Amino acid sequence: MSWGTELWDQYDLIGNHTQKGIEFCEKYTHFVKERCAIELDYAAKLKKLVKNYQPKKKEEEDYQFTWAKGFRGMMNELHDIAGQHEIIAENLTSAVFKECQNLILEMKQEKKRCLQEGFKIQQHLSKTLDTLEKSKRQYEKTFRESERASETHKRADADINLSRAEVEKTKAVAQLRTQECDKNKNDYAATLQETNRAQNEHYTSLMPAVFQQLQEMDERRILQLQNFIRESAKIENGVIPIIKTCIEGMENAANSINVSEDSKMVVDRYKSGFEIPQDIPFDDLSSPNSSVGSGSDSSLNTPKYSGTVNSRTSSGTITGRSKKRTGLFGIFSASKTEDTKEDYSNLAPNQQKKQLQKKITKLKHDIAKETAERDGMSKMRDVYLKNPALGDASSLDKKMEENGQTLDELNQELQKYESFLANAEGRLTPNMARKRSSMSHEENSVNSMTMSASDLTVTDGNRMSSSPLPANNVQTPPSTEEQNSDTPVIESEIPTPDISVTSPEGTRSNSSYQEQASFDDVDEEYDDSGILGTARAKFPFEATASESVTVEQDEELYIVDRDHDDGWTRVRKLNGDEGFIPTTYAHCHFYGEHCVDCGENVPAM
Hints:
By secondary structure, the protein is mainly alpha-helical. The protein has helices spanning 3-6, 11-52, 66-158, 164-255, 259-270, 349-386, 397-425, 430-449, 480-483; strands at 457-458, 464-465, 533-537, 556-561, 568-572, 578-582, 586-590. Helix 2 runs parallel beside helix 4.
């Protein structure tokens, strides 16, 4: 249905209608803008809420419980939901708000052009009608004058008193007026014909074209508005799967809360390890050996505890000691950390072992980091030696020496804290001593493969000399306090493997000092007596380094060295080849340990 044919006489109303459409688009633009602002404000408030309820540094320890982890997981998902609201605002701004602004600008320009064109057409028709009206008035005027002239001639011709000349004169005037009337009549007819043609063209062609342009503009506005609303819904629908995933994450966070695990964690965290006090013995006052009246305290009285229970106590345990506040309200008193002993002997037994294990884990991580750094520098040095143009190998000597000293210090710290842990766990029985000796031998084997950079002291570009390295896993002598304890000391003799490395001069040294060697240099340590169990490859593995070995799926292997928390296990193939494979690539069965797959104990060889 066309506006040009149906609304040919409603030019002004069509102009008002299109103007209202543009104003509605502007209104919708303001709506989208305010909605984006609300979405951004909502996202910002959600993120601020999550930030305000993030655990403080002093609360990190409490967030190890599953209920706290569940709450943190829920907050993380809420933070992601806030991010999705930001995405909604950004997409609405780019895909709807800006496009709607561009549409409004185009519509205003097009409407202005159409109205200007329609105004020109209207002006042309008005001028044509004015010309027709003027021509009609002129024709009417000459027609009346012609009639008067004819009447005058008739009266003069009938008047016998007038001369013939006067009659001829009136006749000539009447003929002149008649000629003028005929001429104006023809002009009026031509003008009328032209006006009718222009008017017909105006209402059937020119103005309908303008109305059609306005109609197309309005329909395009409606379609664009439809697309904008659909695009808004599409943007909203695009983030719903992610928001749904976040909500599922909240449900998973709630499902991850484990009551029994939290209860067990409370026990592990706060268990002191002290034994329950024994029953208080009955003191017979009638006995001659009774201490009544002797001035000594009776055992029936409230028992008195010494300063510490079993020489250790945990925080919050009543020890009988009163806290002294020194300085001005304790402000200038010593820090609380100064009361913590190096071996954590001031803590309860369980807490002491936990802290020592944490310290040992950190030291092992630092040793692995320094060892990796040492290996990198060694490889870089080898590259520099082969191609001096890439760099000076001697520039790494100082760094490697510092790295070696750091490794020595870390190894000494590790040995010291392992000794503290052994003392905290109680003195070893002979069987436990043999077991720790075996484990120490394994660690020595691994350390011989990852050897500290302190073994290498570079003296020149091609020669290295050995430097002393303390033997790993040799317990340091107990402190004076430990020697005075009532528990007997049982020290396990842990052999330190001697590694002989051929020097550049061709000589071989065999001493208590270890020297730097690659994995190929320490293969001699793994003989048949060092087999710890069997393994079967779950997946094929292709060696990518000289210290690894290629295995096929379901291949039977011997375990030569355990996984030392680095993800690698050293195995020996049936053909005698040895190397490391990923621990997760094999089913490992150690002799004397329970086999998970078969449900039986694996016998020793």
